[in-house]
Amino acid sequence: MREIGIGIIGTGFMGTAHALALATAARLFDLPARPRFEMVVDPDPARAETLARRFGFARHHTDWRALVEDPAVDLVSVTTPNHLHAPMSLAAIAAGKAVWCEKPLAPTTREAVAMARAAEEARVATAVGFNYLKNPLVRFARELLAAGEIGEIWSFRGIHAEDYMADPELPWSWRLDPVAGGGVVADLGSHIVALARFLVGEIAEVNGDLSTVVGERPKAPGAAERVPVEVDDVARALLRFSSGAGGSIEASWVAAGRKMHLAFEVTGSRGALRLDMERLNELHLFVRGGPAGREGFVEIPAGPDHPDYAAFCPAPGHQIGFNDMKAIEARYVVEAVAGGRPFTPDFGEAAAVQAVIDAIRLSAREGGWRRPAELLYEAGGSP
Ligand SMILES: NC(=O)c1ccc[n+]([C@@H]2O[C@H](COP(=O)([O-])OP(=O)(O)OC[C@H]3O[C@@H](n4cnc5c(N)ncnc54)[C@H](O)[C@@H]3O)[C@@H](O)[C@H]2O)c1
What we know:
Elements: E1 3-9, H1 13-28, E2 34-41, H2 45-55, E3 59-61, H3 64-68, E4 75-78, H4 85-94, E5 98-101, H5 109-122, E6 126-128, H6 136-146, E7 153-161, H7 184-187, H8 189-200, E8 203-211, E9 216-218, E10 226-228, E11 234-241, E12 246-252, E13 261-268, E14 271-276, E15 282-287, E16 298-301, H9 322-337, H10 347-366, H11 372-378
Parallel strand pairs: 1-2, 1-4, 2-3, 4-5, 5-6, 7-12
Antiparallel strand pairs: 7-13, 8-11, 9-10, 11-12, 13-14, 14-15, 15-16
The chain binds nicotinamide-adenine-dinucleotide.
């Protein structure tokens, strides 16, 4: 059986998630190629060694350039802070390797477009880690919307709220760096924008508002010195979709009590669909016209009739989790690298997501409705 040499850069939350996802996908799905764990990289050698040992990587290193130049590596997972995605991905692409990069693809639309173009020219497969799009119920929701189950789509209301930055004493980290992290609009906003596009389509115009609610933070853990926060903690935007539907999104990393509140409600002329990733195995569907006194949302539990669920469990209602969505993502990454269907969202789609984020930033800064397609075009991409 054909093998694909795997290289993972970064050993944090996502580095571990990519390794686990590939290991799981290799066992649960009939993949066209077997992942072979070649090399893992982290500037901290102990962390690199630990991940290598746990997942059986042949080698580990502290310099990512050694990984992208290694002839045994075919697929490079980029799971580092956002500002490193572009240099690492571009070097991997130049070496002819496929890239599975974490979201958001890059700090700016210009860099994201350059990455997409480089991949297109080198004809290498690319994938971006918008893992919530791989939730079986989100894909089922998309099928229902396409089949007209709730009629003409009128509106999308989306939120991605968590509280991992809510404590004002939390020290400065790469997520607060305007380039390396880019604020919540990039960190969580990219997920909800990707979801809005996946379910309702192209976003034609946005009107954004960004706010910083924790004005300064300790410079380092336990430090008395405080530094100003230059990125947004809360992002809000009104949306106009190309289809004519309207909508709104909010992203917050200071939403007390919220741990994974990535939720949407799509409303149409005949009904509505809603889902909250804090209960990711429950889709709620409402179709107008039920018997008097009994109208309401119906809960659909995830089950083997929904895309890819059956690989994990033959019984409905038994529930899959975050790492399972990542394993589904890994399935399609390997299929794309082995020459099957192109992965979606690839770098081109992720550049379009980035253009929406930059349009929200521009609108928040200078006012007015802004068109993501214009930013994409200015950055050298095709709207
Ligand atoms: N898809 C998702 O649901 C999801 C969730 C969390 C984070 N992310 C994204 O994943 C990326 C990483 O986030 P994380 O939460 O895993 O962060 P993390 O801080 O847990 O891990 C980052 C890793 O990158 C490594 N690193 C930093 N500089 C490096 C360098 N020069 N060379 C090699 N390794 C380097 C760090 O040592 C660390 O292992 C970000 O882009 C983030 O937006 C995606």
